[in-house]
Amino acid sequence: MFNILTKNKISATGLAALSADSYTISDSHADPDAIVVRSASLHEDEFGASLAAIARAGAGVNNIPIERASEAGIAVFNTPGANANAVKELVICALFLAARKVVAGAEWAKGLKGEGSAVGKLVEKGKGAFGGGEILGKTLGVIGLGAIGALSANAAASLGMRVMGYDPFLSVQGALRLSPSISVTEDLSELLATSDYISLHLPLNDSTRGLINSQRLTDCKEGVRILNFARGELVDDRDLLDALASGKVAAYVTDFPTDAQLGADGVTALPHLGASTAESEENCALMAADELKAYLEQGVVVNSVNLPDCKLPAKTGLRVCVVHKDIDGIVAQITTAARAHAHNLFSASKKGLGYTVLDVAEEADTAAILGIPGVLRVRVLP
To answer: Which residue among 29, 75, 90, 297 is the one 20 to 30 A from 357 at the CA level?
Structure first.
């Protein structure tokens, strides 16, 4: 029986993939075998000895201490693409919010309450303050062409926009997802200078933090409109507000507002609604459940951010799963220490972390394996 700790409200429909015969799911397990989390931060959490895996029901993993988990031999999974359609739809909504002063106009209209029969005339008189433009024929620059970026780019192209993409890590599979009408550039400055709208769809790390700053904004068109449905820290707060005040940036729509941005002219702030649909939450929970089930029961690794992908045949006998540091010769040490005849040997590494799996006909010497320098965790699956 595996104990699964939920750190947020996780879709019960998605988690139904974890049968009650083999799993207990609770938000209060003291020493779980796995954690399913959405946006709750785990950085201050202590990880018990039983914890083998963490599944993030979403794509970003900034709320998970990856390095600490890796040092403890804990597999960390995410669910890339599961919420992509939900975020894409909000990005398209944001294009219109950036193009036209919909939110400001709606708020102004509320203030007409009580004017009675004069409302119609007041609306006609006041609407001029909320004019905007159309997205048809405008250029959208999409920075980051992963699942969400590609879907957003394709949707914008279908609405009649010219779309240019930028992604230095674009894979062949990723490129094939794009509509033929979308151009891809290797020059970020070219995208910035060409785009009427810019949409951010890239992960937050040391190289992307503050990507949109005063220097980058000088490359942009006057009156550019920026959408941020990735991570707030991709945009430098002070530089953005200065650009809004000068008119260099005409509008900024974000799902990750900061205190400084709230109430600023030109900012439309949303409360992290990107994946907040019933369908998205169900999709993410289901993918997370499937990943945990495969790993806990079979040792299979799919969509891990710290372990290499591992597709395995059905178990033959006992399956020994070893998480270890990527050290020369350690796999040979593991197979020798197991003191059992091994079948279906698999070994691979990712970002300094190794994963070795071997099926054995008889009990393996797990204590001997754990004694090998660099071995972080050993699990034996019946």
So the answer is: 29
Cα separation of 32 and 159, whole Å? 47
Give the DSSP per-residue string, 306-322.
SS--B--PPP-SEEEEE
Can you state the angle between helices 84-99 and 147-158, rounded to 10 degrees?
50
Q: How would you write 143-206 as a 3-class SS string?
A: ECCCHHHHHHHHHHHHCCCEEEEECCCCCHHHHHCCCCCCEEECCHHHHHHHCCEEEECCCCCC
pLDDT in tens, 245-297: 999 999 999 999 999 999 999 999 999 999 899 999 999 999 999 999 999 99
CA–CA gap between residue 319 and residue 265 (Å, rounded): 60
- Cα–Cα distance, 322 to 203 (Å, whole number): 29
Set out the domains of the chain in order of their start, with CATH numbers: 1-82+277-306 (3.40.50.720), 84-269 (3.40.50.720), 307-382 (3.30.70.260)
Phi-psi sector, 348: left (phi>0), alpha (psi -120 to 50), beta: beta
Q: What is the 3-state secondary structure (H, E, C) of 93-128?
A: HHHHHHHCCHHHHHHHHHCCCCCHHHHHHHHHHHHH
Q: Which pLDDT score, from 0 to 100, does residue 129 have?
A: 95
Identify whether the C-beta of residue 322 lies closer than 8 Å to the C-beta of residue 305.
Answer: no
Return the pLDDT at 237: 96
Task: Write out pLDDT tens, residues 146-196.
Answer: 999 999 999 999 999 999 999 999 999 899 999 999 999 999 999 999 999
